[in-house]
Design a protein that fits this description.
Layout: H1 2-36, H2 70-77, E1 83-87, H3 88-95, H4 101-119, E2 122-127, E3 143-147, H5 153-163, E4 170-173, H6 177-185, E5 189-191, H7 193-201
Parallel strand pairs: 1-2, 1-4, 2-3, 4-5
Amino acid sequence: AQVRQEARVARDLAGVRVRLLLDTLVDAGQGLRAELALPPVGDRPADLVGTPAPVPAERATSRGRAASDPALLDDLLALPHAHLVVDGYNVSKAAWPSLSLAEQRRRLVDALANVAGRTGAEITCCFDGQEGPRPSGGGARGVRVLFSVGEIADDLIRRLVGAEPRGRVVVVVTSDRQVADDVEAAGARVVPSATLVARVARL
């Protein structure tokens, strides 16, 4: 029975990943068509043989921004179906080191709720937990709060990124170099904790 349940969960996860990736691609394509004001296709490849390729106009992108620039985070979260994954205590201890952990959690989650309201991005905040009941400090509107149980938050973040379909914009906020290297290898973008701290300070 357990094997069948695990197989069913795996199938459900695969289905969710495929549907989410398709939604992301469709929305990105529609957004790009609207942004570039692309007309319906009239020409065919054979019509353009021998025609010099036009030089594309330069467009501002996020590539030129430093990882420490809060505007980079804004650019990434503006992309369709972006998912922001936050290394909770890594951020909160940098932002409010003198406060209790419970107060750090509350302030960070409240700040992330503001980010969620402004951007519409999916936001998941991960904190180190412990065996047994979860610590106090639940989520806020638009923010999924997860506590690691039987593992460290770093591994929870790795699993979250690994569960996402390739092609979805996943942004991980952490200054833990090992976590950053691992999630980048899995396809996520990494933004330092200080960048998010600077971003929420503007709210």
